[in-house]
Amino acid sequence: MTALPEIPHLHPYEQLTPSRHRLITYSLLACVFLAMLDGTVIGTALPRIVEQVGGDDSWYVWLVTAYLLTSSVSVPVYGRFSDLYGRRRLLVGGLGIFLLGSAVCGLAGSMELLIAARAVQGLGAGALLTLGMALVRDLHPPSRTEGLIRMQTALSVLMVLGMVGGPVLGGVLADHAGWRWAFWLNLPVGLAVVAVLVRALPEHRPTAAAPGRLDTAGILLLAAGLSLTLTGLSLKGHAPGGHVVPWTDPAVLTCLLGGLALLALLVPVERRASVPVLPLRLFRDRTYSALLAAGFFFQVAVLPIGIFLPLYFQYIRGHTATVSGLLLLPLLIGMTLGNRTTAALILRTGRTKPVLLTGAGLITAGTAAFFALTATTSPALTSLWLLAAGLGTGPAMGGLTIATQNCVPQADMGTATAGSALTKQIGGAFGLACTQPLLNHQTAPTATALGTTVAWTGTLAGLLALAALLLTRNVTLPGKRTVAQPAGKASERA
């Protein structure tokens, strides 16, 4: 009789059966994977899409940018709203938008409609990426050490598969089944996930609803500012016909200055908002701000490797695309091992800073080694450099997210997760904008040009990530000293 009054006070996720807990977890991981995969899946299919739908090379950038823009801009909105109103309905709604965009992409008969559908798809993908990861953290908190380690490992594998598997899958489908299947395949997976989330995932709202009006002005300014900034970076990173677009190009400069001006105007608006979409109080925490900056620079450092090393293997060494992908395996293995090791060390010691600093040092050293890249560098040596860079990138994939989520109050966890994801996306766009001109100054890519591009970008960004991490405090995970007792039950659930 005494136990009955306590049941309503249990967190709804604590009352899930182990089988339902696993089913929901797999569905959330599928959400994250779909969002990551669709960011890269059309890369290798772009020539076939333009050939069949119409248009020219100038359309390439917008097919990619439309998805990047809406998925990035919606991330902080989804994250903040999930902290205020709960995550389940927002995730299901975002998944519905994503599937609608996927269906229209598969049916599109004009380039204009396809680009618009990609934008709709990205609008839903922002929910999949942010809320999927936040809910994984809700179901596997740091107090359940083994379960969270497994989840961080799974997320890192999905990131790697999305980054590498997307272009491969897009190419295979374009050659053998038709590029439209790159979008239609989302439908059965997405509908199955919707069914699971609706039937199995409990609705959990914050204990106290935040008073105040919806921050409409803040949402509009944030969306417009991020859109213009990312558009400017995308235009800068796009090199039509091999021609470098300068930073002073009117379109690039107008977008960047306009975007930064709107983001600056956002600051006083958020200070006055009763329920701001972007809580400025979080940025007063030096650790939170420094972790976001570190994530940005980590992404800048690693991006050139994934873009320019395949060019080196194919155009300089003469390997096929398949062999080129296999030669990148040390990077992917390093990412997976680095992320799993990072999660294990952080969750078992409760110390975040030493592991993250080690990661920044490894990626700096691993990318700096490419200064020595030549047309005759042995595959064993490039594999060693790639492994070091991958091991250094691992902490940025999971460790930074764990530290960011735990340096803010639990009520702001969704916002923190969104901030971490957004700064990494912006870092990727900025890295591409900076590295493309370095390479395009060459009439033809050479081993030296590719190596120095990777090395300069990675070394400078790695050192900046290291400097940002030195400004952080050592984030302590909640309940670290009481992990031993519930770990067994948590591992059974995971």
TrEMBL record:
Keywords: Membrane, Transmembrane, Transmembrane helix, Transport. It is found in: Cell inner membrane. The keyword Transmembrane applies. It is a multi-pass membrane protein. GO terms for molecular function: transmembrane transporter activity. GO terms for cellular component: plasma membrane. InterPro entries: MFS, MFS_dom, MFS_trans_sf. Residues 24-476 form the Major facilitator superfamily (MFS) profile domain. It comes from the Bacteria. The keyword Zinc-finger does not apply. This is Major facilitator superfamily (MFS) profile domain-containing protein.
